[in-house]
Every structure is written in C-alpha cells, then in structure tokens.
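Sequence design from tokenized structure. All designs in this work follow the same two-part layout: the structure record, then the generated sequence. An example of the structure record is given first.
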C-alpha cells in the first residue's frame, strides 16, 4: 500500500530527506524537474513546438525554471519563460534557479500584473505558478492570470499540482484554478486527484519518483492508502492440493426480480468465476429457467414469499440486493438477515430498503460490507455537497458501525472499521455500464465464502474487478459486465 500524504506531510518529507540523505534542497528540485521532463518528453517529443512556461516565485516556480533549463538543453528552442511576479517573496531555490537563468543566454518575461499578458502564441503551456504551497483560494492577479491561461484553451501540463487546486480537503464547486490536460506530480498522487471533482482541474495525472525518503513517507500517520498490485499478490491465497468444493465455501446470492433477473445472473456468475465452492442464487420463480440454462453450476433457491433464510449459518457469505426490487417481503427478508447477525454484503435495492429503515442501520452485523454508489450512499447517510465530506461520513460510519463501506466510483474508496481509507486505482470508463456493480457484489461474496476477512475481500474484489475491466478495455471502447465476470479467473491466475 502506498501511504498518501497531505501537503504539510509532503513538506516534512522534503525536509527530512534533505536532512537525512546526501541531497541538497536545490538538487531535490533538480531531480523533480528531471523527472517531470522525462515524463513530459514521452508525450511531447516534437521539439519544434512552442512551449510557454509560467513560473511563480516559490518552489513550484523553481521547478518550472529548472524544467525550462532542461528543455532548452534537450533542444527545445521555442520556449518562453514567464515569471509571475505577483509577490515580493521568493524561495531560496527559486532564486538559485533564476540566477542560473539570468547568467545564461535564455530570455524571460516578467509579468507584474495579469493584464501584462497579451496575444500569447503557444502550443503547450507548463503551469508552475503555485504548487502544493497553495494556502488560500486564488484571487486578484492570480485568478485573472489563470483565467487568461484557461481561455487560451491549450494543452496545459501542471507541475506537481494545477495552480489553485487544493491537494486535499474540499474542492470548491466554483473551482477557479488551472484546467490541466495532465499533471505530473512528485512521489505521491495528491489525495484529491481521486475525487470526481478533480476532473475540473486535470484530465489525468502521472506520478514520478524524485527520491524522497520512502520509509519516512510510509510511516507517516495517514488515513489514506493507495492499493498496489503487490498488495493483491500478497493477499491472494492459492487453491490447495486435495481441496474440494467444501474448502472454498458456500455463497448465497439473494438477487433478481421479474425484470431484473440479469442482475442475479451477473452476481451469481461472478461469484462462481471468483471461485466460491458452491453458489446458491435465491431468485424469483420466474428466473429459474434463465438460471438453470445460463449457469448450470449455480444452485437455485426459489424466493416465493421468502421471508427467512433457513439456516443462514450454512453459508459462509450472504449477499443481498442486486436487482432485488423493493417490497415488504424483501424488507422483512433483509431485516431477518440483519437480526441473524451474520456479516452480509448489501448492495443496490437492499441498500435502498436500508435507507428507508434507519433503525436497521445501527443493527448491521459487524464486518458487513456495504457497496453504495454516490446516490445510494447519500440516501443512506444524508445528502453531501462534495466528495470530501461524503468520504468523511463514510469513514466515520465504517468506524462507528464496524462495517466496510465501499463508496463506488472511478476510484472506489474502501472505508474500513479501523478508520483507514483504501483507494482502488483500477477500473476505467469503459466499465461505466449497468450490471457492473452486480458483478462486484458476486466477487466480494466469493472471497468471503473463501474465508477472506471483510476488509481483504473488499480490497481484492474491487482491485480485481477493475483490473479485469482495464485489461478488457485495452482493445474495446466498452466492456460489458458479463465480460468482466468471465475475465475474473484469468486475472486472479495472473496475479497469483
Ligand atoms: N515536497 C516535495 O516533494 C517537493 C516539492 N517541490 C515543489 O515545491 C512545491 C511547493 O513549493 P512551495 O512550498 O514553495 O509553495 P508554492 O506552491 O510554490 O507557493 C509559493 C507561495 O505562494 C503563496 N501562495 C499560496 N497560495 C496562494 C494564493 N492562493 N495566492 C497567492 N499566493 C499564494 C504562499 O506564500 P504565502 O502566502 O504563505 O506568503 C506559498 O508559499 C511543490 O508543489 C513542488 O512543485 C520540488 O521542488 C521538490 C520536492
Ligand atoms: N468510469 C469508471 N471507472 C472505473 N470503474 C467504474 C467506472 N464506472 C463504473 N465503474 C465501476 O462499476 C461499478 C458500478 O456499480 P453500480 O453503479 O452499482 O452498477 P450497477 O448498479 O449497474 O450494477 C462500480 O464498481 C464502479 O467502480
């Protein structure tokens, strides 16, 4: 897991690295600039392009100057350097890089106020005005300059963080910072890059290592952790010699209705393909033929007037919700399951019924897993105006109720009872299609059936679900939920 840090913690890491490694502050800046340029050159290899580099007077601007220097040395002739002179202060390393530039033949333009800028002709912009030192919203000249740059509608590469974008905390809905095409950030992604609102500031980000002390970073106190493939490889348990279906547990999927039988099929299919020893689908009578013909391996349990799961203890995992439909009978079924006090996976309509019965929320069995998307989450726990606040609520609820909350999105946040938030990096917009969440629910149930702890099951399921989607999307514009389900055993095999 990568520990993710706030700007203040990054600054401390910076200081610690300089104090404890044989590297001076200016050399760290040089390393950052080199790492930026390496990544930039992979995208922009045409050295005849016009590049405008805007540099503030802090360390972000210092990076910008070093980047300009390196690009010029790489044969990029058409570089214009703009020094944003809106403050009397300058950082030491900015000053050193500025002096180096002053002593060279390279020219620069000083901008004393936003209105100084007129008729800039450029193909590409590098934004090094303000970085992680941002400590208030952009106003006056900074706001005007950024507005001007955004209006040029050019490809903007941001250094470390787009100017005006808060690295953590609430992202204002009226965000007025730089709108970058790509942000190349140092050592760790900013926490806020994982929120949907970050699309206002950057289309994508790439993290480049600059030699900061990894031990120091990993040992910082943080709630945020980015899941890595190596974690998944460590967590997965191989199937054992002499094992049999009983070894891998029995999962019960309570799902489907007359018009939504597909949801039950998708969840059951992914449960089967994730390796549960036995999968039983509790479905409406009307779905029996569909189940028996499409998934002959799955046991059918008709749900007519079904109000109670007989002997729930015989299942190692119970998931309820996909395509279930809302009814008094289903609500009773959910209530009874909650009173049975066995951990549950609760998705879709089961979440919607739960939001109508707040009395049941407090009674959720410990280690249950809730898988809401944004709207389901807000129905359960109240409206939120932004993702930062929503995530804070999810974190608190997961701790209070001792459950796992998977707040689904492009980057899903997995909030666990210990107060940690795991961020899943896999998945892509080709997966934005109905049924994808049903598949996720089946995968979670299968991992629980195989006796993975709730937190591990949630992390594994989310990562592998997204990874399957990523690999399938390499040559497809859209990936269907059943394709993802069928890809799961292939992904698990690759990861083992
Ligand atoms: N740690 C790392 O990994 C490494 C970091 N490096 C680089 O350093 C960057 C951080 O640099 P930094 O700390 O000097 O701050 P930076 O963003 O340049 O701002 C300068 C000053 O602007 C001011 N200011 C803030 N907000 C404002 C506003 N809205 N409107 C007006 N003014 C505002 C504020 O000054 P103040 O208001 O406090 O006087 C602030 O101090 C980081 O992003 C990365 O690029 C690498 O070089 C090496 C490794
Ligand atoms: N753009 C995307 N990038 C990554 N994952 C996505 C994207 N869109 C959807 N997904 C994933 O697909 C699933 C959708 O869940 P959900 O909205 O409950 O779907 P459904 O109810 O149709 O089954 C989630 O796991 C989500 O993370």
């Amino acid at each position: 897991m990568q520990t993710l840090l706030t700007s203040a913690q990054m600054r401390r890491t910076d200081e610690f690295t300089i104090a404890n490694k044989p590297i001076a502050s200016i050399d760290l800046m040089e390393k950052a600039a080199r790492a930026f340029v390496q990544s930039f050159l992979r995208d922009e290899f045409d050295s005849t392009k016009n590049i405008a580099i805007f540099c503030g007077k802090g360390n972000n601007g210092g990076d910008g100057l070093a980047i300009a220097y390196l690009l010029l040395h790489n044969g990029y002739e058409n570089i214009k350097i703009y020094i944003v002179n809106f403050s009397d202060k300058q950082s030491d390393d900015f000053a050193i890089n500025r002096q180096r530039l002053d002593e060279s033949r390279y020219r620069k333009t000083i901008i004393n106020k936003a209105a100084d800028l007129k008729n800039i002709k450029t193909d590409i912009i590098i934004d090094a005005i303000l970085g992680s030192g941002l400590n208030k919203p952009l106003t006056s000249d900074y706001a005007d300059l950024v507005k001007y740059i955004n209006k040029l509608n050019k490809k903007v590469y941001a250094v470390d963080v787009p100017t005006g974008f808060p690295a953590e905390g609430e992202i204002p809905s009226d965000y007025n910072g730089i709108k970058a095409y790509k942000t190349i950030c140092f050592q760790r992604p900013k926490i806020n890059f994982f929120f949907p609102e970050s699309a206002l500031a950057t289309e994508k980000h790439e993290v480049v290592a600059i030699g900061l002390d990894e031990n120091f970073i990993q040992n910082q106190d943080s709630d945020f952790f980015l899941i890595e493939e190596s974690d998944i490889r460590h967590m997965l348990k191989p199937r054992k010699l002499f094992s049999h279906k009983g070894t891998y547990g029995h999962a019960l999927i309570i799902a489907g209705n007359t018009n939504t039988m597909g949801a039950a099929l998708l969840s059951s299919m992914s449960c089967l393909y994730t390796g549960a020893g036995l999968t039983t689908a509790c479905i409406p009578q009307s779905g029996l033929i569909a189940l028996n013909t499409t998934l002959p391996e799955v046991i059918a349990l008709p749900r007519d007037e079904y109000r109670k799961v007989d002997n729930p203890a015989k299942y190692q995992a119970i998931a309820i919700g996909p395509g279930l439909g809302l009814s008094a009978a289903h609500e009773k079924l959910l209530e009874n399951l909650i009173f049975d006090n066995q951990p549950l996976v609760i998705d879709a309509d089961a979440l919607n019924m739960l939001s109508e019965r707040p009395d049941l929320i407090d009674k959720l069995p410990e280690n249950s897993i809730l898988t809401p998307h944004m709207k389901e989450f807000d129905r359960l726990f109240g409206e939120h105006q932004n993702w930062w606040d929503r995530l804070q609520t999810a974190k608190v609820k997961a701790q209070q109720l001792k459950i796992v909350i998977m707040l689904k999105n492009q980057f899903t946040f997995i909030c666990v009872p210990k107060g940690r938030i795991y961020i899943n990096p896999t998945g892509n917009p080709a997966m934005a299609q109905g049924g994808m969440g049903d598949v996720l629910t089946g995968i979670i149930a299968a991992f629980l059936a195989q006796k993975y702890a709730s937190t591990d099951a949630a992390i594994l399921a989310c990562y592998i679900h997204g990874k399957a989607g990523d690999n399938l999307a390499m040559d497809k514009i859209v990936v269907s939920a059943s394709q993802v389900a069928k890809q799961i055993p292939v992904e698990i095999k690759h990861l083992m």
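The first strand starts at residue 2 and ends at 3. We note this feature because it recurs in several other targets discussed in the main text.
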